[in-house]
Amino acid sequence: MAIKTIESLKGCGSEEEIMEIICAVGSDLGDVKDDVNSLEVIPMKGAMTNEVFEINWEAKNGGGVRKALLRLYGDGVEILFNREEEIKIFECISKHGQGPRLLARFTSGRVEEFLHARTLSAVDLRDPEISALIASKMREFHRLNMPGPKKVQLWQRMRNWLSESKTICFPKDIKNFGLENLDEEINMLEKLLSEGYEDIGFCHNDLQYGNIMMDEETRSITLIDYEYASYNPLAYDLANHFCEMVADYHSDTPHILDYTKYPELEERQRFIRIYLSSEGKKPSNARVEQLVNAAEKYTLANHLFWGLWGLISVS
């Protein structure tokens, strides 16, 4: 059921500012009714960091409905990522034709192009056809030429998060979670993983099913939500995607990860072979195995990364 604008946006910051932005976007569309009573704002489920709404304008002369997506930023996320950097990345990815267009921005959020595609489910990640499409899209995404230093961001981000975790956790939690020794473990892991194969590219870093959309007609894949995107080892991003296959965030127990669902070796090999083949050149078995092994090692970094994220998020 659609919920009228003011009711939907209660408690969402400056309602007046948000409404001005929404009306301005509607005006830019040109063919929508200039009547706030015909405007609908529908809360969308699934977002973890932000509040997300579908905006519907009634078109003039019975022309149907025009849509956009309103994203209201969550509180306290500045600890986890730089919002200004995320906006720059969003705009740059959009210019590359890899994501939704930015229609407007304001103090507490932004309005984006509404993608007429469906968000994938946990089950979709295991569908061989869909998985192959994701693998090809990942390769394309990793090859984006983005602004900023093209060096690994993973380790420094984890160190920053560890420092923040120590600040906000109670002493007993610092001890229980072993945070006193984690600096040393991060250093050790960085050294060990950096010694082997390490191809660097622009990584999404949060490739769970909710951040992947598919157009049912064209079967095209779009990766969305770039809060954690940065240059990193490609093996890390692949490892993250494999780890996300064990999660179902729409179950009754979204916090429980089922590692019986972790992809078997053959499935990981198939995904990486398609990933490497997507540019038209068949990879050698040795190259596939090299990246499969590197991704397996980077699962350790993924667990550590999202473990620290969890400590900060619940504090």
Automatic annotation (TrEMBL):
GO BP terms, alphabetized: phosphatidylethanolamine biosynthetic process
GO terms, molecular function: choline kinase activity; ethanolamine kinase activity
The protein's name in its UniProt record: Choline kinase 1
Annotated Gene3D superfamilies: 3.90.1200.10, Phosphorylase Kinase, domain 1
InterPro entries xrefs: Kinase-like_dom_sf
A GO CC term attached to the entry: cytoplasm
Signal peptide: none
Protein family (similarity comment): Belongs to the choline/ethanolamine kinase family.
